[in-house]
Amino acid sequence: MKLSLTLTALAAAKTASAADITPLVAGDLNSTLSALDSSVLDFNFISFGNAYYLQEDCPGYPEYDRSDGVPCWQTKCGVDSPPDTCFTGTLACQHGDDECAGNAAETCVKHLKPDFKDYMSFAYCYEASFPPSASEVSACASAIGLTTDDIDGCVNDADLMSSLQQTEGYATAQAAIPGTPTVILNGESMSSTRLMLRQVCKSFATLNPSADTPAGCSSSDAKQLRGSAASSSVL
């Protein structure tokens, strides 16, 4: 049985608090995704952050409201059959137009290059000096076999972009995340992302007690984790 691992957008990396997220993105998350492949891990990066579609019946309208507007939208729109107004109209991002543009670019790259090792490589590169220059975006795209024209073609396709953003938005609303980044392992928010690879390997061992140890999990760690799996929670 594969594990489900979801990362909500790297909004913090686009602000002055980038130092708070760097250990996760460049360290534990990167090492986990580098060590494991899609046969073990069903990974999804949702590049939506604390954005939401402004709602007339939510606090703060018509302005962005992080404290009350976002949770109102999550409650209203994270249901099985959300109202039609939930994912139409103005999409507002916590940190303004630059963040919205970055989210759109990363969402398009995921659409164009669905292998998580590809699109996360772009995300790491893109976020490294946010907002990136045109030449930096070109270099990030080229590293995974894309061009800026490929990305722009997706971003500027109104129907496609709307569909992709609605999908990301609905996933974000359903998760009811408290903020970004949030990492969700098998449906549960990780209380700590320290030693993420070890936690993921432990979860795999718990779900697949008879399976071979994944190549990315050290045999010594796997033995230790299997031994504690019955009495210890992953998260």
Automatic annotation (TrEMBL):
- Give positions of region: Disordered: 210-235
Q: What is its main location?
A: secreted
Q: Where is the composition biased (Polar residues)?
A: 210-222
- Cellular component, GO annotation: extracellular region
Location relative to the cell: Secreted
Pfam family example for this protein? GILT
This protein's UniProt keywords: Glycoprotein, Secreted, Signal
Signal peptide as annotated in the record? 1-18
Q: Which GO terms describe its molecular function?
A: oxidoreductase activity, acting on a sulfur group of donors, disulfide as acceptor
* Family membership: Belongs to the GILT family.
Name the chain's protein: Uncharacterized protein
* Protein source organism: Triparma verrucosa
